[in-house]
Design brief:
- This protein has 230 residues and is α/β, with parallel strands linked by helices.
- It is built from eight helices and eleven strands.
- The strands form three sheets. The protein has a five-stranded parallel beta sheet with strand order 2-1-3-4-5, with helices on both faces. Strands 6-7-8-9 form a four-stranded antiparallel beta sheet, covered by helices on one side. A two-stranded antiparallel ribbon has the order 10-11.
- It binds calcium ion.
Amino acid sequence: MAEPRILIVEDEEALAQLLQYNLDREGYKTIRAADGEEAMLLADEESPDLVILDWMLPKLSGIEVCRRLRANRKTRNTPIIILTARAEETDRIRGLDTGADDYLVKPISMTELAARVRAVLRRVRPGLAEDMVVHGDITLDRVAHRVRRADYEIHLGPTEFRLLDHLMQNPRRVFSREQLLDSVWGADIYVEARTVDVHVGRLRKALMQGGQPDPVRTVRSAGYSLDLES
Ligand code: CA
């Protein structure tokens, strides 16, 4: 399945970069627009699966972009998440009234953003954000919070579950300990890098309890990847 494409519309360069970096890492394909007019052009040309839209933009405001996307047959059903610096109830309601699917108030937590993106995609395009992920003989059920490998039910702690979920979204891709810390634990939490090794160790042990091969590859001085084919 092709990875979902996300159009990021944000004029603050640093925030746009941060959003792009984090969404790329979640396995999405991202494109960026720095103002409302560029956003309209890219939405039309690229048919993104989701638009992340800043409220305060040069040329066309976010609310106007939202209105126009909804009026265009091609983008009528494209989900939109609005980013706003204001937390006022009226702005939130106005955004949702204009046709946005969800909103986030700045400063934005990347963990929260990833969760909202996944939820919106799952709601509007079930095929894009599956409830079940499969890699080799491992199945992870996000709704029931269950993991199976071959005929075995695997019991994982919450951290191991999130770790496996993250690795399964991008099988064979190597993640550094720092990347795993940011994605699984969250960038705001201080955890030592070797904590990752401990949880990877637990995850391995749990996944190998039926005597199957080790699905986690350790790449010396680089990190870890989930790889059942090598
Ligand atoms: Ca802005």
